[in-house]
Amino acid sequence: MQEQRFENMREEAKSKIKDAGLLLFSTKGFTQVSIQDIAKSANISTGLMYRYYKSKKDLFEELVFEATSSMDFLPQMIEYIKDPKIVVLELVSGMLNSMTESFKTARLLSLMSLAFLNDSIDNRDFIMEKFSNLYVQLSKVLEEGQKSGVFRSGNALAMATHLFTTIQGVANAQLVNENYVLPSVDMITAFIIK
């Protein structure tokens, strides 16, 4: 019983640290945030912060890994749904809905962008490969839709990249303007769907 209580306290502290790190990294950037900033935002001591993370880089990398892992749903979606048009509509509506429900999705997307730009992140190549694979998977869906006549013609990989960067842009806009009105699914997919 006592051990479970301590485990819950540890998990709660770690969760506070991760939430604070996500907020600060996504709004200030990696270089402008210190361990002390994160500890203060999480309402914990700097010493406790160091118990969980040796550096802000360790925390940043864990957050980025979790963010990129959150995109693992796409292959399952493609396998399960099969219809290219529905895959694209579900992908975009799911991302927009999660941005509507919480700023966390926008922050996670912003964090992934920061990881692309930060050469000192150890798992940067992993992140780049993960996104490259997502673009390729989505481009195959777009090619299927082009063959069946539901999608516009064009370079499917470029279209997949454009779709993801559009969603990224929407996430960034939401972070800098809390009154930002999210575009509709139709607006975002107009360059793909006939």
From TrEMBL:
InterPro entries: Homeodomain-like_sf, HTH-type_Tx_Regulator, HTH_TetR, Tet_transcr_reg_TetR-rel_C_sf
Gene3D superfamilies reported in the protein's UniProt record: Tetracycline Repressor, domain 2
Alphabetical UniProt keywords: DNA-binding
Pfam family, one: TetR_N
A single MF term (Gene Ontology): DNA binding
DNA-binding region coordinates: 34-53
All copies of domain HTH tetR-type, residue ranges: 11-71
PROSITE patterns: HTH_TETR_2 (PS50977)
Signal peptide coordinates: none
Protein name, per record: Intercellular adhesion protein R
Organism this protein belongs to: Haploplasma axanthum (Acholeplasma axanthum)
Gene this protein is translated from: icaR
